[in-house]
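Subject: Sanity check before I submit

Could someone independently write out the structure tokens for this chain? I want to compare against mine line by line before I put it in a report. The sequence has 433 residues.
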Amino acid sequence: MADIRAFRGYRYDLGQVGALSDVICPPYDVIDTALQQHLYESSPYNAVRVELTQEQPGDDDIDNKYVRAGRAIKEWIGANVLRQDTARSLYVLEQTFEVEGQTFTRRGFLARVRLEPFGTGTIFPHEQTFSGPKADRLKLYQSTAFNISPIFGLYPDDTNEVFGKIDAIIRNAPPTEAHDHLGVVNKLWVITDTHTVSQLIGLLGPKPVFIADGHHRYETGLKYLEEERAAGDVADDEAPQNFCLMMLVSMGDPGLMIQPTHRLLSGLPEITIERLKVLLTADFEIVGEFTDAADCWDHVQLEDSQSVLGFGSVTDGVWIAVKLRDSARMDALAPEASPEWRSLAVSILHKLVIDKLLVGTSGVTPTCRYVHQLSEVTEAVKVKSCQLACLVPPCGMEHVESIAGSREKMPQKSTYFYPKIPTGLVFHSLKKE
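---
Independent answer below. Compare away.
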């Protein structure tokens, strides 16, 4: 059973910092240098100053971005810029956003969740992690002793029974509102009613939790807990180091969506659409040929199949949609993987098309850039910043649940959950209850 708790979060005193919109920021892994500077300039208290602190000339082991992050959060607490809530609370978050001209609303709540080593309990990852981001986040944990940004978790609840309990409470309560740099409207409510909290925790207890985003932060939490235990700083199983900050969203939430992650390939020998057809013809049926990306993508979406991919050659401006002829091809290429893994569009693209057909025939491994919007694909083709554009249908929640629930990892960049959860709505102390 997942151990989910209310907690006394730290939140900005808006009387001191002004608008919440000025102090929130995205998670560290989607902040580039330009956005980082913009966020720095928006407020001296913007959460980017602890989430992704700027490096300075002369940084060393004594004074560096991690030390500055720790110093900033201590100063903010000391000046009551950040105040700890007096009651254990759950923090409800509603996000309204647009994708391809349509408006969606996604709802969930922030809680503290007991850390479990992967493979031992009811918290399931679905992506591989890498050492670099984990080392970076660990230094931040060590310096700040805070979860600065939440992990994004999903739980099965087809009827949205859990959020139904919340809805009745927040329906007529005014939220705190913040708009992010992408125009996402974030509304936050605080639930302190102990009966409601107990009901929610009771409903969630038997459910598994699937990590949608934040795998590196979750594993960093485990490493930090291990270090703190070794140092004798974890009093008992109820100490805050045993928990992580997590946003929990129902898999049945109507606003939950997995966006596609298209691939833009470069570094290959010159490749035309006719050359690509020759490479693909033994394994794929050509199901459509188009003069622009939008028509090709419309066809891929209409097929609504993980076995259909779209390709556009920058050399000649032609697009094709193709469909895998026989799943046995993937069975032979990835016998160690599950049938569900082998059926994913991203698996077919990377295992068969890129690794076997493109690299296998040219001996050249292409560089790969990942984008999510069709407009990003068309712009890259227009300015010829890639050679081959690959349109990839997104996987569904059923794929995440099936593959992760079997303790198998999905291919890299299989999912992109939009929007991201803002940093700065609430902070979770790893030292103080």
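---
OP: Matches mine. For the report I'm noting this point. Residues 4-257+418-429 form one domain.
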